[in-house]
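Q: What would this complex look like in 3D?
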Amino acid sequence: MANKIERPLDLLNNSKGKEVIVSLKGGKQLVGTLLAFDIHINLVLDNAKELENGENKRNLGIVFLRGDTIIFISPAA
Amino acid sequence: MANKIERPLDLLNNSKGKEVIVSLKGGKQLVGTLLAFDIHINLVLDNAKELENGENKRNLGIVFLRGDTIIFISPAA
Amino acid sequence: MANKIERPLDLLNNSKGKEVIVSLKGGKQLVGTLLAFDIHINLVLDNAKELENGENKRNLGIVFLRGDTIIFISPAA
Amino acid sequence: MANKIERPLDLLNNSKGKEVIVSLKGGKQLVGTLLAFDIHINLVLDNAKELENGENKRNLGIVFLRGDTIIFISPAA
Amino acid sequence: MANKIERPLDLLNNSKGKEVIVSLKGGKQLVGTLLAFDIHINLVLDNAKELENGENKRNLGIVFLRGDTIIFISPAA
Amino acid sequence: MANKIERPLDLLNNSKGKEVIVSLKGGKQLVGTLLAFDIHINLVLDNAKELENGENKRNLGIVFLRGDTIIFISPAA
Amino acid sequence: MANKIERPLDLLNNSKGKEVIVSLKGGKQLVGTLLAFDIHINLVLDNAKELENGENKRNLGIVFLRGDTIIFISPAA
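A: Here is my prediction, written as structure tokens for the whole assembly.
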């Protein structure tokens, strides 16, 4: 996947429809399928779960995530 | 619902008139019916309740929520 | 009131001259009559009181509140 | 005074030359005569005093206050 | 000096070449001669000293100070 | 490398395809190969690892890092 | 050097190629040779060292520093 990344948003575009891990500033971690993003890095995740120490803390379903709370986004391996 | 989401704000648009859970930066959680939103993600919730550990802490009625305090917004299941 | 809200600022407009509760980021809560607001959500409240645990902590009279410290604004029931 | 307030900055304009109390994000409180303000809510206070628990902590003379540290501004009663 | 202040930046302009006290968000305090400022309230202080409890903690010489860390700026009495 | 740096972004441009260490505001440190960056200093790192006390804490694979959480970026020696 | 400073960025321009001390919001301090800066006060330092209590904690080599984490920048005496 790394070969096609010329700008940072290309990685988000390549990750649409795939599961991503999102690390948030307050220490929360969410996992879900990336449905949409915009230039503010606002995201929509489907089948999202909140994780705590790698364990499923609760199911959130579909969520809108504000971009300014995000530290990093990583496609699940 | 996931099929119609092309941009993050589409999820908010689809959620108008429905109950949403809003997670805020300070640790607060609100639940209420989404009446309106704007591009700053400012929201108006009707019949809003503040939750603490999933329990109803107090009824707020109709509230204006500033977008920059929001972590995520999720339509109630 | 909920029927007339198309954009978030409509709620603030509808609340002019009425008592509102304002929750601030630092944990403070103010109650007062909403006299004015602008697009930054800067507010002027008249007969404002600072609350602590729902009790009146001190009377502030008329106050200018900076919008970026606000979490939510709710018309008093 | 409340009758003439149509926009939030009107209150600051009405308060020029009068004593105001300014509550800051870090917990500080200043009192002084409002000499000037701008749209960023930067202020100049004359004869400013820093307060601690309502007591005079130190005299600051004339001060420039950055608007983004301000929670609220209230004309002294 | 108070008579000539129409806008907040006038105070900074009047203070060029004079000693000012600068209070920063992280609790630091600097004293030095104000050489320059811009609209972001970035400052250059000459012969700057960092203070701790009013005592000289260390000499910094000439410093560039980022405006967004500043709470207030006061000409030394 | 230092000779060719005229603007800060030149260093990031020179570091493309190389391993960089990224220090984040929350105390996290990531190491990975810099694939892309933009003017917001959003980054994409490949083969990224999260470090704790210099030890590998977990492998993240390819990650999108939001620029506003970054303190510094340094090409690995 | 103080005579030639008309705007804050003049100090940074005069400091190119010289050793500077940079104090960061999180408490970190870096020392290094200033190679480049931009209007966001993003910096590139060469031969940068991270200091702790004035002691060399680790060598960073060449680093890109994000401007919004900086408190002050001072040319080493």
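A: To summarize the key features: Chain C has one domain: 2-75. Chains C and F do not touch (no CB pair under 8 Å).
Q: Very helpful, thank you.
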